[in-house]
Amino acid sequence: MVEFKDVRMVYKNTNAVALDGVSFSISDGEFVFLVGPSGSGKTTVIKLLTGEERITDGELNVNGFDLKKIRLRRLPRLRRTLGVIFQDFRLIDKMTVFENVAFAMRVVGAKKREINKRVPQVLELVGLAGYEKRRPEELSGGEQQRVAIARALVNNPRMIIADEPTGNLDPVRSLDLMLLLEKINELGTTVLVVTHEKELVNAFSKRVIAIDSGKVISDGMDGYYGYENE
Amino acid sequence: MRMSRFFFLLGQGVKNIFTHGFMSFASVAVITACLFIMGCFSLITLNIDNMIAEMQSQNRVIAYVDEDLSEEQARALESKVSKVKNIETCEFVTREEAMTSFESDYDADLFENIDSSVFRHRYVLSLTDLSLMQETKTDLENIDGIADVRAHLDYAEKFVTLRNIVSIVSVILVVTLFVVSLFIMTNTIKLATFTRREEIAIMRMVGATNGFIRLPFVVEGLILGALGGAIAYGLVALVYHLATQKLLAAMAFGFVVLVPFSTVALPLLGVFLGVGILVGVLGGVSAIRNYLKV
Ligand SMILES: Nc1ncnc2c1ncn2[C@@H]1O[C@H](COP(=O)(O)OP(=O)(O)OP(=O)(O)O)[C@@H](O)[C@H]1O
Ligand SMILES: [Mg+2]
Fold it and tell me: Over chain A, what HEC string results?
């Protein structure tokens, strides 16, 4: 559950107003696209969700955490309810596929037995069964992004957040990736995808929140790209 | 903590050390130097204090007889010496006696090679009024055949000054070296955090606690610090052993009462390991601090 209420966010160092009166909410189990031109504030939305940045004004609740008041010590708890994916995958080069995914479990204190059971399941889900021993450099971009998704999923988060996950992929791989995210959503995880790829968004009939200059300009279930002047 | 997790963290810490071998070596060396200097100075201070206490416990004055005089001539001085004002008791000690009593105070084998002629015949005197010591000393020195007069209290004052100087110098040195070793330690561990910055970012993203993220780096610092402490302890023990032998031989005439190493060994080891570990842990914590802000 995500709830933005009249959120204003100003970057302190530059005084840049990144978000200005943003309100929307995402219920558990939803699949939502967040779209907008470059610099409109999409990544800022994600940074607020993960507690990497704080809101300047308004209210923000994420999976039961009040992000206006949350203490630094509590951030790990919040982050365990979220799985984040980036455009640049952010895999660890010297670790194998298995180790990359297992790493996320290990650092939150999972037992070896749980890890050995869970990691193959997630790799199977993202279509990478049999790739366990490979290193990131031995994978295509699409495969690397699937490892990143497996890593985001492995701790059973309530929500997957993807910032431009297809930015480095060709159209076919991009579509495959969206289908995978849709499958994950159908298994019960909330999914929020940030993108500015119009065709991709239009290929799905999903809710689309469009922001521009830090303001929500449309929010609809029609599955079309809400803002027109790109 | 679970065992597997404990070993995981320990392994990470050890791995960090070897990825930056040179810097790790540098930080161990600096901590070792810091502790070594600290150890030497505190042992010197300790020994001076010990001597001061020893001297102050005796109010004796020793009048050394001229080396050219024979034993009989030396004994003949007794009438003159005992007549000096302010002398309470007067006892003649031959050089052979002085040497024997010295040997019994210290390891006999240390003196095997010292000829008894280096000890002069002497009169051991005690004074009625300590405050008149200076005058009594002058009177004694004016006697023909008395070469030198030494009062322990005289020395005590000089030693107090020396002790104070040594203390000030050592405090300044130790504080400086502590800051330097903390700086080097922090930067060594910063290298490790830099190599692992991607892992740190992922750990934070998936919700590892700050304590967990910090721990491998603290372990790294702890190992480096403890290593520095242990090496410094070994060095100080060695140097003290050599120095006491040399000192006792060289200062055989004086009132050298050295503190045996065994009485300070354990506290010294404790302090060395403690300071080493403190520097290491502080270095680890401050190296990773910037990563844990948000
Ligand atoms: N760390 C930062 N410090 C200061 N200003 C920032 C920072 N990050 C972003 N901004 C500013 O905030 C505004 C929103 O940036 P944001 O990164 O959210 O845009 P975006 O929608 O993700 O863009 P893109 O599609 O290019 O990724 C921009 O004007 C940007 O310059
Ligand atoms: Mg962005």
Answer: CEEEEEEEEECCCCCCEEEEEEEEEECCCCEEEEECCCCCCHHHHHHHHCCCCCCCEEEEEECCEECCCCCHHHHHHHHCCEEEEECCCCCCCCCCHHHHHHHHHHCCCCCHHHHHHHHHHHHHHCCCCCCCCCCHHHCCHHHHHHHHHHHHHCCCCCEEEEECCCCCCCHHHHHHHHHHHHHHHHCCCEEEEEECCHHHHHCCCCEEEEEECCEEEEEECCCCCCCCCC
